[in-house]
Design goal:
Blueprint (H helix, E strand, L loop, with lengths): L29 H11 L4 H11 L1 H9 L2 H17 L13 H4 L2 H6 L8 E5 L3 H9 L6 E5 L11 H8 L3 E6 L5 E5 H8 L2 H5 L6 E3 L40 E3 L54 H8 L1 H4 L11
Helix pairs in contact: 1-4, 2-3, 4-9
């Protein structure tokens, strides 16, 4: 039985049967196959293009007429955007114009409230930092240094792409809370693209399953947990039952996290290996409504994310009349 492309088909066994089934990509259907693979199998397409150039140059030429690899990448990005934020049209990803009007340098250079966090310098202040943790002060602190011996110190999008370009990383979740993934090489290309430069709330990698990936788990050898954070009561729980506890985070400017707190009552440590970040920290007991954009409940095109929070809420937090006096 030959079933042409596009034909719906069903089959019912009338007796015990044995059969062999194969799919094949017919040249006559190349245009459709190329466009479908551009959306759904983007990690395969670059290699396929290379073999087409070598063995079927006329089809490689046709692929270029259909937009080539640049079009494949754009379709892959658009596909992930739609899955991650189904309520937004693609044109709404730039509707607030944060790329031109959110002054990141002004945010970066704003003075720290209350003199900022207590700081320790590693390795010299390692014992003092451990004592700080043991005393249970419940206050944020900053550890400077301590990564000189880490291979992770040399991470960059370029070398991570070279090492793990074909590995799929999580860039969000869909309406069913299932992970949306894309090849790391495609994400790296997105970060340097005009789309990422313009998006209000860009895609970012926030992947808590990298430790289970046969290739990405090699990243665990590139860093170590600082001594003052090694006592973890969850470490005695089996991997199957333990809540997610570590992530790799990659993203372009304006990506990040809007205000949040851990629902399980855990603390966290974050090591910045490349680039700059601006933090806002409010103590326990801060009223949640102070930290939520007022238009979130009324704006059908609410884009969320760090940029919207730092545009809508953060400026108020810098005013002398801000009710949360102990924020940093």
């Amino acid at each position: 039985m030959y079933v042409p492309a596009g034909w719906w088909h069903a089959v019912l066994n009338l007796d015990t049967t044995i059969a062999v089934t194969h799919n094949l990509a017919e040249p006559v259907n190349f245009d459709k196959i190329w466009m479908v693979c551009a959306r759904k199998r983007t990690d395969m397409v670059p290699e396929w293009m290379g073999t087409l150039r070598a063995h079927r140059p006329e089809l490689a030429e046709r692929a270029e007429e259909l937009g080539g690899l640049a079009a494949v990448l754009q379709m892959a990005i658009d596909h992930r955007k739609k899955k991650c934020r189904s309520g937004l049209r693609l044109e709404d990803w730039t509707r607030r114009g944060y790329a031109s009007r959110l002054d990141l340098e002004a945010i970066a250079n704003a003075p720290e409230r209350l003199g900022g966090c207590t700081r320790f310098w590693l390795p010299g202040d390692g014992r003092a930092a451990c004592s700080w943790m043991a005393e249970g002060r419940g206050q944020p602190m900053v550890l400077e240094g301590g990564v000189d011996e880490w291979p992770a110190k040399h991470w960059s999008l370029q070398n991570l792409k070279q090492r793990f370009g074909s590995c799929k990383v999580r860039v969000g979740s869909d309406d069913n809370d299932s992970s949306v993934r894309m090849p790391l090489c495609d994400f790296a290309a997105y970060c340097s693209s005009a789309a990422a430069e313009a998006d209000d709330n860009p895609l970012q990698v926030y992947d808590g399953a990298f430790e289970d990936h046969k290739k990405l788990k090699a990243l665990l050898r590139d860093y170590e947990v600082p001594e003052c954070f090694r006592e973890d009561l969850f470490s005695v729980i089996s991997d199957d039952e333990r809540p997610p506890s570590r992530w790799i985070v990659l993203g372009p400017k304006r990506a990040g996290s809007s205000v949040t707190t851990d629902p399980l009552g855990t603390c966290s440590w974050h090591t910045l290996l490349q680039g700059r970040r601006r933090w806002y920290l409010a103590p326990p007991g801060t009223q949640a409504h102070l930290l939520s954009p007022s238009h979130k409940l009324t704006d059908p095109d609410y884009v969320g994310g760090a940029a919207q929070w730092f545009d809508a809420v953060w400026p108020n937090s810098q005013l002398p009349a801000w009710p949360c006096k102990n924020a940093i």
